[in-house]
Amino acid sequence: MCGRFSLTSNEHQLNMAFELSGGTAPYVPRYNGAPTQQLAVIPNDDPGQLHYYRWGLIPFWSKEIPKSSPVINARAETLSEKPMFKKIMKNRRCLVPADGFYEWKRNGVKIPYRFVMKDEQPFAMAGLWDEWKDAEGKSIRSFTIITTGPNQLMEPVHDRMPVILKPGHYSLWLDETITEIPQEIWQPYPAEAMKKYRVSDKVGAVRNDNPSLIVPVESTELF
User: Fold this and answer.
1) Cβ atoms of residues 211 and 31 within 8 Å
2) Which one of 105, 168, 171, 214 is most buried, by most CB atoms within 10 A?
3) In sequence order, what are the beta bridge partners of 140?
4) Rounded Cα gap, residues 203 and 110, in angstroms
5) 192-219, pLDDT tens digit by residue?
6) Cα dihedral 165, 171, 176, 177 sign
7) Of 83, 159, 89, which Cα lies nearest the Cα of 126?
8) Which of these ranges, 56-70, 108-122, 131-145, 194-208, has the smallest mean pLDDT?
9) Using alpha carbons only, what angle is made at residue 88 by residues 87 and 91, rounded to the nearest 5 degrees?
10) How many CA atoms lie within 13 A of 4 on its CB side?
11) What burial letters (b/e) apply to 50-74, b meaning 16+ CB within 10 Å?
12) What is this structure's pTM?
């Protein structure tokens, strides 16, 4: 599962990492991106810019915006089986840029951890997007993050993690002419390229979105 993530890198870093020329709205760092918020994505139909879509997929055929349990994640193993994902898997893919994501270890109490790259550079999670229109014709674009099994770093905390794409796979993922996705894309990202650390419990509250959330806090846990 992936239920919160951060994107705090500066614009120059993002432009270089994802070959961007700008964005459709002013870039604002996010320390606690959460479901139903408008968050940055790079869609296959305009890969040169950051766009801002609602996190929580609303299928184009939905009669209304779901009032609860937004579809924030899609399991890589069942993408081809679920009607919600089967069609958009072919032509509505996106990169979800991030520089960290959060997960909670449940051991009597919930303990939040932040997972980042060892070099602390931004990365891309594999996503799918869709466009929904209301009765008046107003459209809302939304997205979901694809998940896979855990790597060794994630396993003590949770049994799922986002599909993190290697930079060499960015253009492949966004190319809708490629219909057969290599199985290696769904593999958990190498644990040796990542690190994790405990963060403040304040990340659990959506209203909190500030730099203090990504600061490490002391942990006495042993893995």
Assistant:
1) yes
2) 214
3) 132
4) 11
5) 999 999 999 999 999 999 999 999 997 6
6) negative
7) 89
8) 56-70
9) 105
10) 22
11) bbbbbbbbbbeeeeeeeeeebbbbb
12) 0.94
Active site residue 103: yes
* C-alpha span between 223 and 111 (Å, rounded): 13
Q: Which of 64, 77, 81, 103 is catalytic?
A: 103
**In what helix (H) or strand (E) does residue 114 lie, and over which residues does it extend?**
strand 109-117
CATH topology of domain 4-214: hypothetical protein yedk fold (3.90.1680)
The structure tokens listed for 221 are 């846990």
**Residue 43 to residue 36: CA distance in whole angstroms:** 18
Which two structure tokens, joined as six digits, stand for 25? 């709205």
CA neighbor of 181 nearest in space, from 44, 42, 33, 26: 44
- 17-47 pLDDT, tens digit per residue, is 999 988 888 899 999 999 999 999 999 999 9
φ/ψ of 171, rounded to 5, equals -65, -35
Name the residue with tokens 């730099």: 211
The two three-digit tokens of residue 202, written as one number = 């304040």
Map tokens 């994640």 to a residue: 73
**94 labelled catalytic:** no
pLDDT at 223: 47
Q: Residue 22: which region, alpha, beta or left (left: phi > 0; alpha: psi -120 to 50)? A: left
Per-residue pLDDT band for 108 (boundaries 50, 70, 90) equals confident
- Do the strands 22-23 and 49-55 form a parallel or antiparallel pair, or are they unpaired? parallel
Q: How many residues does the structure list for the chain?
A: 223
